[in-house]
Every structure is written in structure tokens, then in C-alpha cells.
Amino acid sequence: METLHRISKTDLARKTHQIIRNVQRGQMTIVESHGQPEAAIIDIVDYHLLRAVAAYSLDASASTSTAIPNEQVIEALTGEQERYDRVFGAYLAGAISLSRAAELLNLPVIDLRFRFARLELPLRLGAETEDELAQEVAQAMKWAQKGS
User: N or C: more exposed end of the chain, with fewer CB within 10 A?
Assistant: First the structure.
């Protein structure tokens, strides 16, 4: 599926349901008026990811982002964006693996990998330490158990 689609405001008004459904499936949509782009529509998870990456990039010290979050810390955070900022700050700093980030946000790791690839975000593949490898194995086992 093409990930970028251009539509007119008129088409947006006529096909809102279909366009939203396509956006939820990973298709970004640019809304144009007289051939000029006016707005972009993206999936909410993609939106949170992009904002979290921007927040991490703007935080030169990355002091709050590098702390390794745990379930209690994540559950205590009230805002959805705050959760993404904290988890992806830790991921981008190399403190946690992608599978751990997916686990903390209750997202399938494969979905997160596809989103990262589609959004051209930094994707660290493979465990770099024994601890990361153990996290990857634990996440895979949890995912396999959910499927049974």
C-alpha cells in the first residue's frame, strides 16, 4: 500500500470514513486546496512516535529520557504523549530495546518495527548486550503465549 496519499478538501468531506480507515492502516494523507498542501493526516500512534522523537532530539542533555522506565513508572504517567516521550527517549538513548519499548506501550513489536521503517525512524535491530538479548527472548515468549 502506498504510504502517502493526496486528496482535495472536497474528497476529504466526501470520503472521511474511508480516509480515516486508510490512515489507521498506515497511509499518510495530505489534504490540498487548489493543489497546495494544507494539512496532513496521520495515525495517532505515528503522531505520538514523531513527537517523542522530536522531544528527544530537542533535549540536548537527554537526562530524563535515558532513565530506564518500568511498568510502575509508565502506569503513573498520566498523558499518552508523556508515555511515548519517556519510553522512546529511553529507546533512542539505547537504554532499552525496541521489544521492551513495545511491551511498555502495549504495542506488538512487529507493528512498531513497521512504523519505524515507514516513518524512517532510527531502528536498532538485534541485541547489543546479553541483557537486551534476554529482554528480546522474554518479549518473544510473552508474545507467543498470547497467541496460544
Answer: C
71 and 132, same structural domain?
yes
pLDDT tens by residue, 88-105: 888 888 888 888 889 888
**Same domain for 34 and 78:** no
Output DSSP code: residue 120.
T
Of 87, 90, 103, which Cα lies nearest the Cα of 139?
103
| Domain with 68 in it | 44-147
Say how far apart CA 52 and CA 81 lie, in whole Å. 7
| Cβ count near 80 (within 10 Å) | 13
Mark out the alpha helices in 4-68 (DSSP H runs). Answer: 9-14, 16-24, 44-58
Our count of domains for the chain comes to 2
Contact, 84 vs 116, CB < 8 A? no
